[in-house]
Amino acid sequence: MPSFSHFFETLTGSTGVFVDAMLLTLKLTVVSILVGIVIGLIFALLKISNIKILGYISDAYIYLVRGTPLIVQIFILYFGLSGIFLLPDFWAAALALALHNGAYIAEIFRGTIQSIDSGQMEAARSLGMNKSLAMRRIILPQAFRRALPPLGNQFIIGLKDSSLAAFISMNELFNVATTLGSNNFDEMTYLLIVAVYYLILVAILTILVNILERKLAVSDR
Questions:
Q1: What are phi and psi of 130, to 5 degrees?
Q2: What is the pTM of this model?
Q3: Could you write out the three-class secondary structure of the chain?
Q4: For the chain, which terminus, N or C, has the lower number of CB atoms within 10 Å?
Q5: How would you classify residue 128: left for phi > 0, otherwise alpha for psi between -120 and 50, otherwise beta?
Q6: Contact at 8 Å (CB) between 163 and 97?
Q7: Sign of the CA dihedral 93, 208, 220, 218?
Q8: In this predicted model, what pLDDT tens digit does every residue of 131-187 receive, in sequence order?
């Protein structure tokens, strides 16, 4: 175990390279979550559709993604598609994370949409709105607010899952830590340093999510 002085000296001396890796990690996480939200919403709407085949398609996607390891999905996109076209490591990881997150986000949205009182849809329809308009203006805004806490948790999970991009040589936080640790024969110190960076990012995200929750909280009164 490294001494505190050695740890602090290494931490301050490697700030530049870790900050660059942290920014790449954040970029990867944000892109994958935003795309995952779009994917999740689409498949949530398919799942609650009255058209059975659409529900089956959504169930198949969710089962397939949740039933296979994320690292396998990243490798399939990175190596499996290389025979068709070259997919850069960033987009291979981002798309794999987006598809992976999308399966969980679909279930989050399905649950929050179905938690909205059905009487609100009926009231909107009685005012002359069609079903899609009522969904956009009445149901989805409330569902998004209720989905915020689990979406925040999924964002944090996606941040930590981004470390698997190291296996396709992306210079995100975990890959930088293992590379520096190997080059300097000091793996433990750099693993502890990267743990600090992840804890800082998770703390920031948690604070932001809590602020949004307070601003957008749905009153149960």
A1: -80, 175
A2: 0.88
A3: CCCHHHHHHHHHHCHHHHHHHHHHHHHHHHHHHHHHHHHHHHHHHHHCCCCHHHHHHHHHHHHHHHCCCHHHHHHHHHHHHHHCCCCCHHHHHHHHHHHHHHHHHHHHHHHHHHHCCHHHHHHHHHCCCCHHHHHHHHHHHHHHHHHHHHHHHHHHHHHHHHHHHHHHCCCCHHHHHHHHHHHCCCHHHHHHHHHHHHHHHHHHHHHHHHHHHHHHCCCCC
A4: C
A5: left
A6: no
A7: negative
A8: 778 887 888 888 888 888 899 899 999 999 999 999 988 889 999 999 999 998 889
- Two tokens at 119? 């009487």
- In this structure, what token pair is assigned to residue 6? 């050695």
In one-letter notation, the amino acid at residue 197 is: Y
**Which tokens belong to 149?**
């806490």
